[in-house]
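ping. complex inputs:
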Amino acid sequence: MAEKKYCIKTETLAGFAKALGHPARIAIMKFLAKQDTCYFGDIHEELPIAKATVSQHLTALKDAGLIQGEIETPKVKYCINRENWAYAQQLFSEFFNMELCEKNEDCCK
Amino acid sequence: MAEKKYCIKTETLAGFAKALGHPARIAIMKFLAKQDTCYFGDIHEELPIAKATVSQHLTALKDAGLIQGEIETPKVKYCINRENWAYAQQLFSEFFNMELCEKNEDCCK
DNA sequence: GAATTTGGTCGCAAAATTACGAACAATATT
DNA sequence: AATATTGTTCGTAATTTTGCGACCAAATTC
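pong. complex structure:
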Protein backbone atom coordinates (compact mmCIF):
# COMPACT_ATOMS: atom_id res chain seq x y z
CA MET A 1 0.00 0.00 0.00
CA ALA A 2 1.14 3.49 -0.80
CA GLU A 3 2.28 5.58 2.14
CA LYS A 4 0.51 8.83 2.89
CA LYS A 5 2.76 11.78 2.33
CA TYR A 6 0.03 14.39 2.56
CA CYS A 7 -2.74 15.10 5.04
CA ILE A 8 -5.80 12.98 4.77
CA LYS A 9 -8.07 15.74 3.54
CA THR A 10 -5.65 16.60 0.79
CA GLU A 11 -5.40 12.96 -0.23
CA THR A 12 -9.16 12.56 -0.18
CA LEU A 13 -9.83 15.68 -2.20
CA ALA A 14 -7.17 14.67 -4.72
CA GLY A 15 -8.80 11.26 -4.94
CA PHE A 16 -12.18 12.73 -5.78
CA ALA A 17 -10.59 15.12 -8.27
CA LYS A 18 -8.71 12.29 -9.92
CA ALA A 19 -11.90 10.26 -10.26
CA LEU A 20 -13.55 13.26 -11.92
CA GLY A 21 -10.50 13.97 -14.07
CA HIS A 22 -11.80 12.40 -17.25
CA PRO A 23 -14.58 13.77 -19.47
CA ALA A 24 -16.27 10.38 -19.73
CA ARG A 25 -16.55 10.20 -15.96
CA ILE A 26 -17.88 13.75 -15.72
CA ALA A 27 -20.41 12.84 -18.40
CA ILE A 28 -21.41 9.75 -16.46
CA MET A 29 -21.98 11.75 -13.28
CA LYS A 30 -24.02 14.35 -15.13
CA PHE A 31 -26.06 11.63 -16.76
CA LEU A 32 -26.68 9.79 -13.50
CA ALA A 33 -27.74 13.00 -11.80
CA LYS A 34 -30.60 13.61 -14.16
CA GLN A 35 -31.80 10.09 -14.87
CA ASP A 36 -34.25 8.05 -12.91
CA THR A 37 -33.32 4.97 -14.87
CA CYS A 38 -29.60 4.52 -14.85
CA TYR A 39 -28.79 1.11 -16.16
CA PHE A 40 -25.40 0.29 -17.57
CA GLY A 41 -26.84 0.08 -21.06
CA ASP A 42 -28.28 3.59 -20.88
CA ILE A 43 -24.95 4.96 -19.76
CA HIS A 44 -23.15 3.06 -22.48
CA GLU A 45 -25.52 4.42 -25.14
CA GLU A 46 -24.77 7.92 -23.98
CA LEU A 47 -21.01 7.60 -24.38
CA PRO A 48 -18.82 7.28 -27.47
CA ILE A 49 -16.73 4.45 -26.04
CA ALA A 50 -16.80 0.67 -25.85
CA LYS A 51 -18.65 -1.05 -23.03
CA ALA A 52 -15.47 -2.48 -21.57
CA THR A 53 -14.22 1.06 -21.23
CA VAL A 54 -17.50 2.28 -19.76
CA SER A 55 -17.29 -0.51 -17.23
CA GLN A 56 -13.78 0.59 -16.33
CA HIS A 57 -14.86 4.17 -15.78
CA LEU A 58 -17.78 3.03 -13.66
CA THR A 59 -15.42 0.96 -11.57
CA ALA A 60 -13.18 3.98 -11.09
CA LEU A 61 -16.13 6.09 -9.92
CA LYS A 62 -17.30 3.29 -7.66
CA ASP A 63 -13.83 2.87 -6.16
CA ALA A 64 -13.78 6.60 -5.48
CA GLY A 65 -17.10 6.19 -3.71
CA LEU A 66 -18.95 8.58 -5.99
CA ILE A 67 -21.42 6.02 -7.32
CA GLN A 68 -22.79 2.66 -6.37
CA GLY A 69 -24.30 -0.19 -8.33
CA GLU A 70 -27.04 -2.64 -7.68
CA ILE A 71 -27.83 -5.76 -9.63
CA GLU A 72 -31.34 -5.98 -11.08
CA THR A 73 -30.81 -9.06 -13.13
CA PRO A 74 -30.10 -9.12 -15.86
CA LYS A 75 -29.30 -5.42 -15.67
CA VAL A 76 -27.16 -3.36 -13.34
CA LYS A 77 -28.48 -0.12 -11.98
CA TYR A 78 -26.10 2.64 -11.03
CA CYS A 79 -26.67 5.76 -9.03
CA ILE A 80 -24.82 8.51 -7.26
CA ASN A 81 -23.65 7.74 -3.74
CA ARG A 82 -25.26 10.73 -2.11
CA GLU A 83 -23.34 10.56 1.12
CA ASN A 84 -19.94 10.65 -0.53
CA TRP A 85 -21.17 13.03 -3.18
CA ALA A 86 -22.06 15.44 -0.39
CA TYR A 87 -18.68 14.95 1.20
CA ALA A 88 -16.89 15.61 -2.09
CA GLN A 89 -19.02 18.70 -2.54
CA GLN A 90 -17.98 19.90 0.89
CA LEU A 91 -14.29 19.27 0.30
CA PHE A 92 -14.33 21.08 -3.03
CA SER A 93 -16.35 23.90 -1.52
CA GLU A 94 -13.87 24.33 1.32
CA PHE A 95 -11.04 24.18 -1.17
CA PHE A 96 -12.40 26.80 -3.52
CA ASN A 97 -13.67 29.02 -0.76
CA MET A 98 -10.46 29.21 1.25
CA GLU A 99 -9.53 32.84 1.40
CA LEU A 100 -6.74 33.80 -0.93
CA CYS A 101 -3.99 35.88 0.62
CA GLU A 102 -4.65 39.47 -0.40
CA LYS A 103 -1.04 40.58 -0.22
CA ASN A 104 -0.42 38.27 -3.06
CA GLU A 105 -3.12 39.55 -5.32
CA ASP A 106 -0.91 40.83 -8.04
CA CYS A 107 2.22 38.79 -7.51
CA CYS A 108 1.95 37.78 -11.12
CA LYS A 109 0.38 39.64 -13.94
CA MET B 1 -4.64 17.19 -31.38
CA ALA B 2 -7.25 15.11 -29.64
CA GLU B 3 -10.76 15.38 -30.95
CA LYS B 4 -13.48 16.51 -28.60
CA LYS B 5 -15.92 13.75 -27.87
CA TYR B 6 -17.68 15.55 -25.07
CA CYS B 7 -19.14 18.98 -24.63
CA ILE B 8 -16.74 21.77 -23.93
CA LYS B 9 -17.88 22.37 -20.36
CA THR B 10 -17.46 18.71 -19.57
CA GLU B 11 -13.98 18.71 -21.08
CA THR B 12 -13.03 21.86 -19.22
CA LEU B 13 -14.30 20.63 -15.88
CA ALA B 14 -12.54 17.31 -16.37
CA GLY B 15 -9.36 19.22 -17.19
CA PHE B 16 -9.49 21.18 -13.97
CA ALA B 17 -10.31 18.02 -12.02
CA LYS B 18 -7.44 16.19 -13.61
CA ALA B 19 -5.03 18.97 -12.72
CA LEU B 20 -6.23 18.76 -9.12
CA GLY B 21 -6.11 14.99 -9.12
CA HIS B 22 -2.83 14.62 -7.30
CA PRO B 23 -2.20 15.36 -3.62
CA ALA B 24 0.97 17.28 -4.36
CA ARG B 25 -0.96 19.64 -6.62
CA ILE B 26 -3.73 20.08 -4.08
CA ALA B 27 -1.05 20.84 -1.49
CA ILE B 28 0.54 23.37 -3.84
CA MET B 29 -2.77 25.16 -4.38
CA LYS B 30 -3.49 25.25 -0.67
CA PHE B 31 -0.02 26.57 0.00
CA LEU B 32 -0.26 29.23 -2.69
CA ALA B 33 -3.62 30.37 -1.38
CA LYS B 34 -2.30 31.26 2.04
CA GLN B 35 1.17 32.57 1.22
CA ASP B 36 2.16 36.04 0.29
CA THR B 37 5.59 34.83 -0.73
CA CYS B 38 5.26 31.94 -3.09
CA TYR B 39 8.62 31.29 -4.62
CA PHE B 40 9.48 27.95 -6.08
CA GLY B 41 11.87 27.24 -3.22
CA ASP B 42 9.16 27.77 -0.62
CA ILE B 43 6.85 25.40 -2.44
CA HIS B 44 9.59 22.83 -2.80
CA GLU B 45 10.39 23.02 0.93
CA GLU B 46 6.77 22.32 1.70
CA LEU B 47 6.63 19.13 -0.33
CA PRO B 48 8.26 15.73 0.16
CA ILE B 49 9.38 15.41 -3.45
CA ALA B 50 12.35 16.36 -5.61
CA LYS B 51 12.52 19.76 -7.21
CA ALA B 52 12.29 18.34 -10.70
CA THR B 53 9.01 16.76 -9.71
CA VAL B 54 7.76 19.95 -8.10
CA SER B 55 8.56 21.77 -11.31
CA GLN B 56 6.56 19.22 -13.27
CA HIS B 57 3.54 19.61 -11.02
CA LEU B 58 3.76 23.37 -11.30
CA THR B 59 3.83 23.05 -15.07
CA ALA B 60 0.74 20.86 -14.95
CA LEU B 61 -1.11 23.45 -12.85
CA LYS B 62 0.09 26.22 -15.13
CA ASP B 63 -1.03 24.33 -18.25
CA ALA B 64 -4.43 23.89 -16.64
CA GLY B 65 -4.51 27.63 -16.08
CA LEU B 66 -4.85 27.37 -12.32
CA ILE B 67 -1.60 29.17 -11.53
CA GLN B 68 0.84 31.49 -13.21
CA GLY B 69 4.51 32.21 -12.71
CA GLU B 70 6.63 35.28 -12.92
CA ILE B 71 10.40 35.48 -12.96
CA GLU B 72 11.96 37.59 -10.22
CA THR B 73 15.51 36.66 -10.91
CA PRO B 74 16.99 34.59 -9.61
CA LYS B 75 13.73 33.31 -8.18
CA VAL B 76 10.39 32.42 -9.71
CA LYS B 77 7.22 33.56 -8.06
CA TYR B 78 4.05 31.59 -8.48
CA CYS B 79 0.50 32.51 -7.68
CA ILE B 80 -3.04 31.44 -8.29
CA ASN B 81 -4.59 32.59 -11.54
CA ARG B 82 -7.64 34.19 -10.02
CA GLU B 83 -9.67 34.44 -13.17
CA ASN B 84 -9.41 30.77 -14.01
CA TRP B 85 -9.64 29.82 -10.36
CA ALA B 86 -12.99 31.56 -10.25
CA TYR B 87 -14.09 29.80 -13.40
CA ALA B 88 -13.07 26.42 -12.01
CA GLN B 89 -14.94 27.25 -8.84
CA GLN B 90 -18.02 28.04 -10.86
CA LEU B 91 -17.83 24.86 -12.92
CA PHE B 92 -17.41 22.69 -9.85
CA SER B 93 -20.18 24.56 -8.09
CA GLU B 94 -22.56 24.03 -11.00
CA PHE B 95 -21.55 20.41 -11.15
CA PHE B 96 -22.10 19.65 -7.48
CA ASN B 97 -25.24 21.73 -7.26
CA MET B 98 -27.08 20.22 -10.20
CA GLU B 99 -30.27 18.78 -8.81
CA LEU B 100 -30.22 15.04 -8.43
CA CYS B 101 -33.24 13.22 -9.77
CA GLU B 102 -35.46 12.46 -6.79
CA LYS B 103 -37.09 9.41 -8.30
CA ASN B 104 -33.73 7.84 -8.18
CA GLU B 105 -33.03 8.53 -4.56
CA ASP B 106 -32.98 4.96 -3.40
CA CYS B 107 -32.17 3.18 -6.62
CA CYS B 108 -29.26 1.61 -4.80
CA LYS B 109 -28.96 0.92 -1.11
C1' DG C 1 -30.88 -27.29 -22.87
C1' DA C 2 -29.50 -24.07 -26.59
C1' DA C 3 -29.81 -19.14 -27.46
C1' DT C 4 -30.17 -14.42 -25.89
C1' DT C 5 -29.46 -10.51 -23.03
C1' DT C 6 -26.72 -7.85 -19.86
C1' DG C 7 -22.32 -6.51 -18.15
C1' DG C 8 -18.15 -7.75 -16.07
C1' DT C 9 -13.33 -9.54 -16.66
C1' DC C 10 -9.03 -10.69 -19.20
C1' DG C 11 -5.27 -9.75 -21.98
C1' DC C 12 -3.12 -6.67 -24.59
C1' DA C 13 -1.24 -2.30 -26.57
C1' DA C 14 -0.44 2.52 -26.60
C1' DA C 15 -0.02 6.53 -24.20
C1' DA C 16 0.30 9.35 -20.15
C1' DT C 17 1.79 10.08 -15.43
C1' DT C 18 4.95 10.21 -11.70
C1' DA C 19 9.44 10.54 -9.96
C1' DC C 20 14.29 11.23 -9.88
C1' DG C 21 19.22 12.65 -10.72
C1' DA C 22 22.10 14.97 -13.77
C1' DA C 23 22.91 18.54 -16.63
C1' DC C 24 21.84 23.07 -18.01
C1' DA C 25 20.71 28.34 -18.25
C1' DA C 26 20.52 32.77 -16.20
C1' DT C 27 21.73 35.83 -12.95
C1' DA C 28 24.34 37.45 -8.94
C1' DT C 29 28.43 37.25 -6.02
C1' DT C 30 33.02 36.78 -4.95
C1' DA D 1 36.19 34.77 -14.74
C1' DA D 2 35.22 31.25 -11.28
C1' DT D 3 31.34 30.21 -7.84
C1' DA D 4 26.94 29.99 -6.01
C1' DT D 5 21.93 30.29 -6.28
C1' DT D 6 17.60 29.31 -8.40
C1' DG D 7 14.76 26.70 -11.05
C1' DT D 8 13.95 24.34 -15.67
C1' DT D 9 14.85 20.73 -18.94
C1' DC D 10 16.54 16.18 -20.32
C1' DG D 11 16.76 11.38 -20.14
C1' DT D 12 15.19 7.47 -18.07
C1' DA D 13 12.48 4.09 -15.48
C1' DA D 14 8.41 2.36 -13.29
C1' DT D 15 3.74 2.60 -12.96
C1' DT D 16 -0.87 3.89 -14.20
C1' DT D 17 -4.37 5.07 -17.38
C1' DT D 18 -7.12 4.55 -21.35
C1' DG D 19 -9.24 1.83 -24.71
C1' DC D 20 -10.58 -2.18 -27.13
C1' DG D 21 -11.99 -6.92 -28.64
C1' DA D 22 -12.75 -11.27 -27.03
C1' DC D 23 -14.36 -14.07 -23.78
C1' DC D 24 -16.95 -15.31 -19.56
C1' DA D 25 -20.94 -15.54 -16.04
C1' DA D 26 -25.65 -15.33 -14.62
C1' DA D 27 -30.28 -15.21 -15.54
C1' DT D 28 -34.09 -15.47 -18.80
C1' DT D 29 -36.39 -17.13 -22.90
C1' DC D 30 -37.26 -19.89 -26.59
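Residues 82-97 of chain A form the longest helix (16 residues).
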